[in-house]
Amino acid sequence: MDIKANGVNGILTAQDWSFPVPIMYGPGRLNEIGDQCILLGVINPLIVTDRGSHALPFVKNLKDYLTKAGLKSSLFFDISPNPKDHEIGVGRKAFISGEHDAVIAIGGGSAMDGGKSICLTARNDIDLWDFEYEQPVPKLTANQVFPKLITIPTTAGTGAETESTAMVTHVQKAMKFCVWHPDLKPSLTLLDPELTIGLPAHLTAWTGADALTHAIEAYLVPGFNPLCDGLALEGLALVSKWLQISVNEPQNLEARGGMLVGSCLAGIAFLKGLGMVHAISHMVGAEFDTQHGLTNAIVLPVVLRFNLPGQKEKVQRMGQAMGLHDASSESLIKHIEGILDDIKIPRSLSEIDVPLASAQGIAEKAIFDSAASTNPRIASVAEIRTLTEEAIVKAR
Ligand SMILES: [Zn+2]
């Protein structure tokens, strides 16, 4: 088999690693948010969430805790499941007209991405797309510093709560791009597993499968990064232990806590990068508005069959993290497929209305996604097209 690997930064390569942000974890700790804002000097935050979450109890509870602490706040929730560029523009206007000094992003990945993107543009006139990941980093003047950002994930998860990147759909191009700035870092991430208790089973499954995919894809990114690799494996251990339980026993707070922390660790691990599952899934999501974690979950086994040959040591270590002994790549994939079946993930993208005719277009875009560049195995457009077609017709 001819397997072309992506480039590797080895143990003799100088590298800079940075790690994220203060994290508060524990059931019920949302009630500390007012004090934490005061400690951070925040007096008038804009709460950013998505359309699907704005009426849920955690938004009202957050607002009440802020009011109790004597803080002003207002709510912006015009964010779709795959946040769009024009929505970020509207959020920016809400931030400016409300004279806010911070953003509290609360909700799933779209709320995190929406909140971060609003922060990027809140205090400058720079176009959102100038913050695109592949562009030169925009220079900010002294009075353009980003507002404080607090992240409170209510799904486990996208893992988007500790890092500075956000995925936004460029509506005109029907493509998702990653926007970021290295100086935009959450001042606080609050992990309260009680906030995830009410998440319906299907969303628990889909977002949990996203966390599973992050741990696996981050670990498979080539290069010497023991910090991220350690987090990826521990994230994988937690997610594989608690995912099915959190879907089947929604009130199980231990399972919810394990998933929230596992998802957070996997989210930090992908500072190292992601892989072809995400590259394909980003483009499917941008074109057909499919749910991100669900799309990843369907694509995952197909990409693993492409990526795992030649990864013996990593396969064994992932197997150990998942409680398997002497895992081969096929037994590891079978185990993952068992989890996906258990949590009722469809077996093909066609079941979520992705047509076969779209595969070529998706492949042509996916190859330029930043996640494709860190996939462990180099893939041509033709190979990505084949992977996409398999995922559309029958992924497992
Ligand atoms: Zn993801």
Present as ligands are: zinc ion
Q: Please report the distance between the alpha carbons of the first and last residues.
A: 22 Å
Shape: globular
**Topology as H/E string?**
EHEHEHEHEEEEHHHHHHHHH
Poorly predicted runs: none
Number of helical segments with 4 or more residues: 13
Percent in strands: 5-15%
Amount of helix? 40-55%
How many β-strand runs? Answer: 8
Q: Main beta sheet, described?
A: 6 strands, parallel
Rg, Cα atoms, Å: 20 Å
Q: What is the chains' assembly state?
A: single chain
Kindly state the mean pLDDT as a whole number?
A: 94
Specify the structural class.
alpha/beta
Walkthrough of the structure:
With about 400 residues, the chain is an alpha/beta fold. The chain is built from 13 helices and 8 strands. The longest helix has 23 residues, at about 225-250. It is globular and about 55 Å long. The structure holds zinc ion. The site of zinc ion has 6 residues, from α5 and α9. The site of zinc ion (ZN) has 6 residues, from α5 and α9.
